[in-house]
Amino acid sequence: MNNREIKQKIQVAFSHVTPPDVLNSVLSDCQEQIVREEKGKVFIMSEKRTSSRLVKWTVGVAAALAIFAGGGLGLHSYQINHTVDSIVSLDVNPSIEIRINQKEEVLDVTAKNDDARVILGDMDFRGSSLDVTVNALIGSMLRNGYLTEIANSILVSVDNDDPAKSAELQQKLTDEINQLLLTNMFDGSVLSQTIDENAELQQLADAYGITLGKAQLIQEIMNQDPRYLFEDLAALSINDLNLLHRTGVSTETTTSDLIETVGDASDKAYIGEDKAKAAALAHAGLSEADVSWMKTEFDFEDGVMVYEIEFWVDSYEYSYDINATTGDIVSYEKDREGKAPSQNTANSGNTNSSSTSYITEAEAKAAALAHAGLSESDVTFVFVELDYDDGRAEYEVEFWAGNTEYDYEIDATNGTILSYDHDAEYYAPSQNTANSGSLISSEEAKSIALAHAGVSVADVREFECELDKDDGYSLYEIEFKSGGYEYSYEIDATNGTIIKQEKDRDD
Amino acid sequence: MLTIYLTSVIESNTGSSPEALELYLAKIVEKDTQALADLYRSTNAAVYAFALSILKNPHDAEDALHDCYVQIFANAASYHAAGKPMAWIMTITRNLCMQKFRERRKSSDIPQEDWDRYLDAQEDASQEDRLVLRECLQQLTDDERQIVTLHAVNGFKHREIAELLQLPLPTVLSKYHRALKKLKKFL
Fold first, then answer.
1. ipTM of the complex
2. B169-186 and A3-15 helices cross at what angle (nearest 10)?
3. Contact present, A97 and A159 (Cβ < 8 Å)
4. Residue A73 contacts by C-beta under 8 Å, 6 or more apart in sequence?
5. B23/B49 same-domain check
6. CATH number of A280's domain
7. A250 compared with A438, residue with greater pLDDT
8. Domain end (from B44, B76, B110)
9. Per-residue model confidence (pLDDT) at position A425
10. Top-confidence residue, A448 or A53
11. A300 & A160 share domain
12. How far apart are CA A383 and CA B176, in angstroms?
């Protein structure tokens, strides 16, 4: 069974799952939304009228503080539990620690650094509810320019002796902050975690004047990449740590179960991957078409954020560190030993230890390109992998040219093309298909397919042809067998264009 | 022939043109609930399949499906018409699923018997469909399953999947191929 067949099976299987019908409840919720907005016009209207995000926030914060003031008056009417139940910390660059009792009422709020003192100002949250406090603090961070388009990450950490309670609180806060950001159309990134009590980490946190939460995030990043120093990372903002954390997660060495992320860290403070790539390629005297594989990641080297760029040309591996702020080349390396990561065969060089000799990946790729009538520079991405299918070694070669995806299976011993498949994804069908008078005949479609396959009518078995008008355009679906192969085609019935073609061993 | 025929049925099922979807979204900004219903009808299968593939839990996927359209209704104004409405909708779906994920982190996935019961209740699904769905859920990692669903079911290009899941393209490709290889063993 080839990949395309599996893909089709999956597609079919999922299409046979009946989604539950929730339309009515969606519509009634939306109706409520409309009513609520009518009632809450003070809020919503002021949001709509202004275009400035900051003004919006001021309104929100003022409202939040008004609620708080109301709550404060009733402070003495009930017993307050003075015992600390949970510690919640918010880190952006300002680091703030909030201690709450069992009822989620604030006992005290501590600024852990100078930025946090700016945020807190003379606000007093004692006795107010946790969500009002978090609301106001995040509002203040926005107003004071700590949460911006170029640094959009917030770290939420929850510490409670009961892990279930921690998880619940973490979830609640994350949702609340997300909702807050969403309604204000701020494209933020919220990292959240529960804290594992750890005396050693607490000491480190105290030594660097950061929250235990930030220390735990740093430790997590150091677990992913042990080259980092705690000292260096402690000075970084949460946004930069978020970028590094994402790098660690995406390289899949470890999957982080400790830290949950919603939204992406902003990289707008930096030059961007494209510029970094261009700088590296320019230095190497290469163009993107020359390289077979490329990887870009954030890294932190010698006190600066860098883009780490790796690419391969033939058997050379290039790696560059590009200063993420200035675009300068910090360091580079060209390594002969390198081999492209898709190559899971033997080492570089010539290993004749294996009994059968296979053609190389480059040869397999060349065979596929030759068959497709394309050159290396026409294709955007090439995937080559040695695979064992039906007891024989074959290369799977896949690449894109324009909107077309090409799949080949190539015999690894002699370079024969075993099967191929060209698929124009998102083929834009020609219009005005309602008029069936303009369609080509099935005979014409047949001859187009046979001519393309290079097969004469006499050699064809099990020929099937069907005109399909389902998708609002008309196409001929053709299948036939010939000489040990099974062919299938889709042909645009208005103009004879081949939309899909597939050739596979008939087994 | 059969598979090809089915393929086109599915495409017509989940694939209203981006222009049509953007038209709905524009009307939804004006709080047009009829347009929301139209959008729902042309995209709910895709949203549900994706939610199911992330959450592996029909109840949670149903919640995500519901919440997705409520959010679309509330936030349609933040969609910037760029010809990729499905990518936007899928991003919302994914974010909602991730929230759900955290909510039920304490509880484990639903037991296998419940899955079997759920799959058996799918009247349109053949024996083979059920096998395919079961193996997708059992054999694939979360990332692999999302990538496979987005590509095979929703017709996203690998490049678009990389963008949506914020993974490098080579990672998406290698995970996709690894996933198909795993499934090959069982199907």
1. 0.86
2. 80
3. no
4. none
5. yes
6. 3.10.450.40
7. A438
8. B110
9. 54
10. A448
11. no
12. 12
Please, are residues A89 and A157 in contact by the beta-carbon 8 Å criterion? yes
Sign of the four-CA dihedral A135, A136, A138, A142? positive
Q: Which two tokens stand for residue A99?
A: 């201690």
End-to-end C-alpha distance for chain B, whole angstroms: 20
The rounded distance, in Å, linking the Cα atoms of A491 and A352 is 46
Kindly determine whether residue B106 and residue A164, on different chains, have CB atoms separated by under 8 Å: yes
**Closest CA of chain B from A464, distance in Å:** 8
Mark out the alpha helices in A96-250 (DSSP H runs).
Answer: 114-120, 130-143, 163-183, 199-208, 212-224, 230-234, 238-250
Strand ranges inside A290-424, DSSP E: 293-301, 304-313, 316-323, 329-335, 382-389, 392-401, 404-411, 417-424
Separation CA A471–CA A498 (nearest Å): 16
Same domain? A447 vs A412:
no
Domain count across chain A? 4
- The distance of Cα A269 from the centroid of its chain, to the nearest Å, equals 19
**Which tens digit of pLDDT belongs to each residue from B15-46?**
578 889 999 999 999 989 899 999 999 999 99
Q: Characterize the bridge pairing of strands A153-160 and A189-194.
A: parallel
What's the per-residue H, E or C state across chain B?
CHHHHHHHHHHHHHCCCHHHHHHHHHHHHCCCHHHHHHHHHHHHHHHHHHHHHHHCCHHHHHHHHHHHHHHHHHHHHHCCCCCCHHHHHHHHHHHHHHHHHHHCCCCCCCCHHHHHHHHHCCCCCCHHHHHHHHHHHHHCCHHHHHHHHHHHHCCCCHHHHHHHHCCCHHHHHHHHHHHHHHHHHHC
Percent of chain B with pLDDT over 70: 88
Question: Distance (Å, rounded) from C-alpha B172 to C-alpha A252?
Answer: 12
The verdict on a CB contact (< 8 Å) between B133 and A14 is yes
Q: Which residue has the tokens 């001859």?
A: A447
Per DSSP, what are the bridge partners of residue A304? Answer: A301
- B30 CA: distance to closest CA in chain A (Å): 11
DSSP string, A209-263: T--HHHHHHHHHHHHH-TTS-HHHHHTS-HHHHHHHHHHHHHTTSS--SS-EEES
Of the pLDDT bands very low, low, confident and very high (cuts 50, 70, 90), residue B93 is: very high
For A291-349, what is each residue's pLDDT tens digit? 876 778 888 877 788 888 888 777 677 888 888 888 888 888 777 643 444 333 333 33
Which of A15, A29, A405 faces B13 most closely, judged by CB atoms? A15
In tens, the pLDDT along A433-442 reads 444 457 888 8
Contact A34 B31 (CB under 8 A): yes
Altogether, the residues listed in chain B come to a count of 187
| pLDDT at res. A42 | 32
For residue B66, give how far its alpha carbon lies from the nearest alpha carbon of chain A (Å).
6
Domain check: are B70 and B120 in the same one? no
CB-CB under 8 Å, B174 with A263 = no
User: pTM for this structure?
Assistant: 0.40
* A-B C-beta contacts closer than 8 Å: 188
The set of residues, in sequence order, having a beta carbon less than 8 Å from that of A329 and lying 6+ positions away, is: A279, A280, A283, A320, A321, A322, A323
Residue A450 has pLDDT above 80, yes or no: yes
Is residue A390 one of the residues assigned to a domain?
yes
CB A17 within 8 A of CB B149: no
pLDDT in tens, A170-209: 888 888 888 877 766 778 888 888 888 778 888 888 888 8
pLDDT of residue A354: 37
Residue type, A383: F
More confident: B183 or A402: B183
| Claim to verify: residue B100 and residue B187 sit in the same structural domain | no
Residue B147 binned pLDDT confidence (cut-offs 50, 70, 90): very high
User: Under an 8 A CB cutoff, do A17 and B133 touch?
Assistant: yes
